[in-house]
Amino acid sequence: MNRFSNIDCLIGMAEYEDKHFDLAIVDPPYFEGPNNQGYYNGLGQGKGAAIAPSKDYHVADWEIPDQEYIDELIRCSKNQIIWGINYFNVALPGGRIVWIKAEGGTPFSQADIAYHSFYNRIDTFKCLWAGFWKDKKTNGEIRIHPTQKPVALYKWLLTKYAKQGDLILDTYVGSASSLIACEDMGFEYVGFELDSEYHAAAVKRLENYRKQIKLFTPEELNVK
Predict the structure, then answer these.
(1) Is residue 114 within a helix (H) or strand (E), and if so which, with residue range?
(2) Cβ count within 10 A of residue 47
(3) Quick one: pLDDT at residue 145?
(4) Where are the domains of the chain?
(5) How many other CB atoms are found less than 10 A from the CB of residue 208?
(6) Closest CA to 40 of 50, 49, 48, 29
(7) 17 bridge partner residues
(8) How many angstroms separate the CA atoms of 175 and 30, rounded?
(9) Greatest C-alpha distance within the chain
């Protein structure tokens, strides 16, 4: 049965036995909050523009995960996909995933990099996704979180790296894109989100997704 809890992921993972999850797909904070509120706010107006923190943005307690987090993640999952691996001071030799999300004309990174534990190879996926995040849409998805990733990216990850019947873990759920992809593709999951406001927003997004699904028949949803 699916679970999405508003708790610290280290506390949540401790509840599960070794290798309980088939695949962990996680997106931890890339930078520590207090010194990077401007970056996370994503309020830039173009190359070289000043970025000002907004009052409703709360990242002061965000921390880059350390080796303890990585060790616990590997303990309770058989395979892992970890976004932002190039920013972390941890030892994880293995494969890489490059998500190409922009093609110039943006002050933000044009790609994100993830570690994957399956084989020592670089895989790429292209899905353009850049610009404002607060209450804006990108590729038809409302952006509710500054580090939100598209549902299409998670569906690609599940298609390529997971198999039917796998139990998925997400320790930093954020906007719930990963959980929507899991539900859409029939994967059971466990997710954690420490921030209560983002957890509430993610729950609401999940509920809206489920309401939309009920408007269509299975045959309509499977139309190619």
Answers:
(1) strand 111-116
(2) 9
(3) 86
(4) 3-221
(5) 12
(6) 29
(7) none
(8) 16
(9) 49
Q: Which helix (H) or strand (E) holds 117?
A: none
Per DSSP, the residues of 118-183 read: S-S-EEEEE----S--TTEEETTEEE-STT---HHHHHHHHHHH--TT-EEEES--TTSHHHHHHH
Using one digit for the tens of pLDDT, what is the confidence trace for 78-89? 999 999 998 888
User: What are the pLDDT digits (tens) for 10-35?
Assistant: 999 999 999 999 999 999 987 655 45
Residue ranges in the chain modelled with pLDDT below 70: 31-61, 130-138, 214-224
- 3-class SS at 82? strand
pTM for this entry: 0.85
Right CATH for 3-221 from 3.40.190.10, 3.40.47.40, 3.40.50.150, 3.40.50.1100: 3.40.50.150
Torsion on CA atoms 23, 27, 32, 33, rounded to nearest 10: -130
Give the pLDDT of residue 14: 98
